[in-house]
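Researcher: Let's continue the batch. This sequence belongs to Putative ABC transport system permease protein, and it's 829 residues. Same format as the previous ones, please.
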Amino acid sequence: MIDCDHFGIEVAFVFDTARYPDRTKNWLTWHMLRHYLHIAWRQLVKHRGANVVKLVGLSIGMACCMLILVYLSDELSYNTFHRHYADIYRVNFNNATDRRKMSSAPVSAGPAIAQDVPGIVAVGRLYNRSGIMEAGSLKYQETGVVFADRSIFDIFSFHFLEGAPGGLVLTRDMARKYFGQASAVGRTLVYEHKAPLQVTGVVDNWPATSDIHFDFLIPFETLYSVENQATGDFLRTNWLFNPADTYVLLHPGQDAAALAPAVRGLTRKYGDERVAKFWSLSLQPLRDIHLYASDVEGNPSTNSITYIYIFVAIAFLILVIANINFINLSNAQALTRIAEIGVRKVAGAGHTQLILQFLGEGLLLCFIAFLLGLGLAFPALPLVREVTGEALHPAVLGQGRVVGGLLLLFLCTGLMAGLYPALFITRFGAGALIKGRTKIGGRLIRQVLIVTQFTIAVALIIGAVVIHRQLSYLREKPLGFRKDQVLVLPLFGKASSPISNSVDGPLRARMNAFEDDLRAYSGIQGVTLASVLPGTPFVEGLVIPQGFTERDNIFLPWASVDYDFIETMGIQVVAGRGFSKAAGTDNTQAFILNESAVRRFGWASPRDAIGKTMIRGNMINGKRGFVIGVVKDFNFAKLDQPLQPMIMDVNVPRFTTFAVRVSAPSALAYIRSAWSSHFPDLVFDYSFLDEDINALYKAQENLSRLVGYFAALAIFISGIGIFSLASFVATRRTKEIGIRKVLGAGTRTIVVLLLRDFQVQVVLALLLASPLAWFAMNRWLHDFAYRTSIGWGIFAFAAAGTLAVTILTVGFHGVRASLVNPVESLRVD
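Model: Same format as before. Here are the C-alpha cells for Putative ABC transport system permease protein:
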C-alpha cells in the first residue's frame, strides 16, 4: 500500500460540476495552483542542501546579468536625452594616407557646410579653450570653457533655469560656484584677465550620460577678440588645423549618405593643394560616438561596443554555468523521486500536469534566486561604478527598459533552468517508475554539462590571466624615458590650445626664476619645460627633411622642449648631442630626431642623420636648421599604437608645461608655494606623469577587473556544483563503498574512485578551453602594437587551479564516505 501523503499527493473534493461550472472551474484552478506551490515548497525544504547550491549559483549568475544589464542600459542611453538625437551628426576630419579619423574639424569647415551642403538645418562648432575665470576675488583655472555658435542651442537640448542664449551661458554648478544662490544672470565673469563676459543664461547640468561636456558656453565670435589678430585670421582661414568639434542637424528623415559627397568635396573646394589631396570631411551619427568611435582620434569616449559584447557574453556564460548546476542537481534529485512520479501517473496525473509541476518548482526556485540576485546587485553597484567609471545609481534598476530586461531575464532563466529537468523527469511510464525499471540517471548528460561548465570557467581564467599580464606588461614596459616621480604643471591648463597660449618675454623671465627656485630645493632632482609631454596628444606639423620637398607632405609629431628636457626625462642620445645653451643657435636652427624618424626619411643610420638640413613648416616661412642629434625611440603615445617618428626643437614661446622630477614628499608643498610667488595670476594645477600614462588604459583596466571577478565567480559556482554532485554520487554509491572497505580498500582508494567520475570531464574541459581561449585572447592582443606572449605557463596555471578545486571538493566527500562504518554503509537500501 502506498502512503500518498509521503509523496505530497492530496485527494480533491469533487462536487457537482454541471450545477456549478464556473465555481468548479475557479476552485479547481486555485486548488491546483495551491497544490503545485505546496509540493514545490515541500521539495524545496526536503532537498534544502542541493537547493541552496542551486540558489547560490542562480542568484550569483542573475546578479551578474542584472549588473551588466544596468551597465548596458547606461551605455546605450548616452546622448539620447537630446530631442533631435537621431538627426545629429558630428563632422570628422579624415586623412587618406594613413586612414586616420579625427573627431574635430577645421574652424572654417562649419560655415562652409552651412553654405554649401543642402539638407542641413543647423551647423554648430564647439571650441574648447581652457582658461582662468574670475569673479571678484574668486579665480579658477577652468577646463570646461567652450566657445560655441548660437546654433548649438538649436542642435542640442538645453534646459534653461534662467535667462537665455546671447552671451555667456553657465551650467548650474558653475553659477553656484561663482555666485552662490544669487541669480547669475546679468553678472560678469572675466576670462583670461582680459575679456569681461556677461552672463545671459544658466542651464541645468547635462546628464552624466553625455559625451559632450562644458561648464561655460561663450559666443564663438568672442574667440577672435580673445586671440591675437594673427591667430584669429589663421583660425578663420586655415583648412589643416582642426580644433573645433563640429555638429550638424539634418532634416528629419534626411539620408546622411546622400550628403556625403558634398561634405567630402569641401576640402577640395576650399583647401590648398595639400588639404585637397590628403584630407576630407565626413559625417558620423551622434548615436555612434560613444560605442562605435573609439578608433577616432580625440573622440570623447574610449568605450568600445566590443567590450560591451564581451561583458554581456561573460555574464551570460556565468548564468549558463549556474543553470548547468541547476540541471545537473535536478536530474540527480530525480533518482529520489522515481516512486513519487509513478504514483502521480497512476493517480491520473497527465504528462502536461507533471511537466507544469516540475517546471513550476524550477520557476519558484528561480524566483527566489531572482530576489536574492536583486539583493546582491544593489550593494554590488558601487563596485561596478568603481570598475567602469560610470555614474550608475540603484534607481537605474527601476527604469522601464531595465525592468523589462529583468523580467525577461527571470523568464528565460526560469525556463532554461526548469524546462529540461521537467521533461527529463516525466518522460517514463508509470509502471516502469513504480517498479524502478528505469535508467533515469542521465549520466552522459551530466558529464556533457560538467565539461561545458568547466570549459567556460577555464576559458575565463585564462582570459583573466592574459589580460592582467598584458596590462602589467604595458605598465612595466620600458618607455624609453623615466616616467616615475615626474610632476606635470601646465601653465595654461590641461585643455589649453596649442596655438592660443604662448610665452612672451616677461612670462619667460618668471618661468626662469621659478625654475631656479625649484632647482635650489634638495627634494627636486630636475626641472624642464615642453610644449607637450608623453601621454598627451602631440601636434603634427609639416616637415621638409633633406632630400624631400614640400609636395611630399610629410607631417610628423613634434615637440618644443627646453635645453635640459632630454637629460631630465632620462632619454638616451644615440648620435650627435642634445640641446645646449652654450651652442648659442640651438633655439633657432637645431633639430633632434628619434630613430624612427631617421628610418622614415630613409637615412642610413642615426650618425648619418647628423648635419642633415631640415625645415619645420613650409618653404616660405618655416623654421630652417640642421639635425644635431638622434635619440633612442621612446613611447610618447599609447602602446596599442606603433611607435611614430617625431622631431624636437627649442621654441620658447611654445613652452607651456613644466615637468618636475621630485624625490621627497615635501617637494609638492614647496612647489605650490613657489608657484604662488611667481605666478599669482595663474592657477596651480598638477598631475603625475605615470598616472596620466596609466589612465590611457582605462578601458583595458575595466575589462581586466571585470573578467577577473567573473572568472572567480565562474570557478566558485562550478566548484559548489561539483561539491554537491560529489555528495550525490557518494550517497548513491554508499553500499559499494562499504563493500570495498570490507574488502580492504583504504581512504585513498575511495577518493580516487569518486574522482574518476569528474577528473575525465575536467581534463576534457581543459583540452577544449585552452585552444578557444588562446584564439580569443590572441585576437584581443592583436589590437596592441606591443604585447605580451601567451605562454604555456598560463594554461598550466588554469589547469592546476581547476584540478585543485575538483580534487578538494570531491576529495572531501571521498574522505567523509571512507570514514563511515562499513556496517552502516551496507545497511543502506
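Researcher: Any comment?
Model: Confidence is low (pLDDT under 50) at residues 1-17.
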